[in-house]
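[step 3/7] inverse_fold.run input=structure_tokens len=145
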């Protein structure tokens, strides 16, 4: 099985999977013309399965697959007689792709840590400091004798 047939098969399976997962968005029997209500199962399915898989895991799997296919292709090209410039460019492109695939996995972890530090830690400190400034103000009072 050649690389192009593997890629074609992966594209076909991915498109079929996305179409199967998106059927729930097209046909929702709970929607009535003037009311907008959804089932809890459909909401959980769309958040956890459809969005989590299609947006989260599937792109990483596709990147890893294509990076491995490129790596295998470069290893087979290295044994043939080709121009050194082309081989150098192919090796550079493969290295860039593999580094991108590895770094994207760490990006998700770092992004979550940055969000936690900025929002949960520093924003709460800023809010506490702002509350202390507003709570310590003296308000004038009027006394009637």
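[step 3/7] decode complete -> sequence:
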């Amino acid at each position: 099985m050649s690389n192009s047939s593997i890629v074609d098969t992966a594209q076909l399976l991915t498109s079929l999977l996305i179409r199967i997962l998106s059927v729930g968005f097209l046909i929702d029997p709970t929607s009535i013309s003037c009311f907008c209500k959804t089932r809890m199962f459909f909401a959980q399915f769309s958040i956890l399965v459809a969005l989590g898989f299609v947006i989260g895991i599937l792109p990483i799997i596709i990147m890893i697959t294509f990076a491995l296919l490129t790596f295998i292709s470069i290893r087979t090209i290295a044994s043939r007689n080709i121009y050194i410039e082309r081989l150098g460019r192919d090796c550079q492109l493969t290295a860039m792709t593999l580094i991108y695939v590895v770094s994207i996995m760490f990006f998700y972890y770092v992004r979550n840590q940055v969000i936690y530090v900025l929002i949960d830690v520093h924003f709460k400190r800023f809010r506490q400091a702002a509350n202390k400034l507003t709570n310590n103000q003296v308000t004038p009072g009027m006394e009637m004798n």
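[step 4/7] annotate
Residues 84-135 form the longest helix (52 residues).
Residues 40 and 57 are 23 Å apart (CA to CA).
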